[in-house]
Amino acid sequence: MTIELETGAVEVAEGWKDDDGFVTVFQQGSGPRANPKGDFPTGPDVGTRMPDVRCLDSFGNPFDLHEDRGRRPAIFIFQRSAVW
Amino acid sequence: MELQAQIKAFEAAGAALYSLSYDEPDALADFRDAYDITYGLLADPDSHVIRQFGILNTLVGEDDHPWFGVPFPGTYVVSAAGVISQKFFGKNFALRTGPEILLRALREESGGRESPARERQVDANWNVFLDGERLIVSVLRDLVARIELPVGERFDAQQTLAGKDSFDLLLKEHPRLVVGDVDVVHVNDGEVELRVPLAVNANLADGAIYAQEDITISGELRWHGSGSDVAPRCEKFELTLPVGPALRSELTTPVDGTVVRAMNGMQHFQKMAARRGITDLSKLFPE
Fold this sequence. Notes:
The complex is a heterodimer. By secondary structure, chain A is mainly β. The radius of gyration of chain A is 18 Å and the shape is elongated.
């Protein structure tokens, strides 16, 4: 899939404003504002099994998604950063 | 912050809640403590899980550190059996799916979208409301419109399939309003629910970014039930919604109307940059 970069932004006093009215110091099209213009990959399809997720948690302990959720439904969010 | 505010609702739905980012565990620990997070925060600093899912943001240059390694942000709804039942991914990464939309996905997961018909009235009933208490910058919440047709009328699902919509929700443009696509739910043949996700941006409102003034939304709800001699209806509405404070990173310039809590943000940012070979942070930020 060829993903196109969104570069349209308007310069304002406080930085750069995108089409939806969000303003940051970073111009659209690089770093934290590298957003897609059209379609982009969204991972495994609806209807397929949620992949195994094994990583560390915020306590530094090993985490396993299916094991941790047990028989509960789950909401799994991919975020960019809690720091920036 | 908005997710944590609804934690009891997620627990009542019997659902587990997780958020994964490319932050390191100790950064997430500080975030957790600063914002009293009780749901699962997961660390993927080398983007292994992000890559495994195929959602590494490849629009970020491989050498564009420390930004390279982030995912295309989005949310998966996982059923009790471990299957992905819905997912939410949007093009503007400033927007996040709000907790109410996720809670609704969980309800649909367990109970489906249909509900038994209520006793019909002589006149049509309609209502427009926000599924949530207020609007917060970047958090998507549904504006919900419900139409209950009177006795003798019904919504023809076939009409909709043929491309002739029997209902429409139109919102007037507002510089602070970000509007998504309308989603139609046939509750039953006499009742329809339309949902459109909204968020407020940090657009200049009388010169103040992140202004917390209420925002007034106006629009029209139109519908046309099938039945003999049924006239189309058009109802105008106006809703004033409170705007709440947005959560903002410690790294950004302080701005009125936002919530920022100390979490050793600069230290963690320096560490994640150093991990990727960047020691001069001044070069990261525009003049």
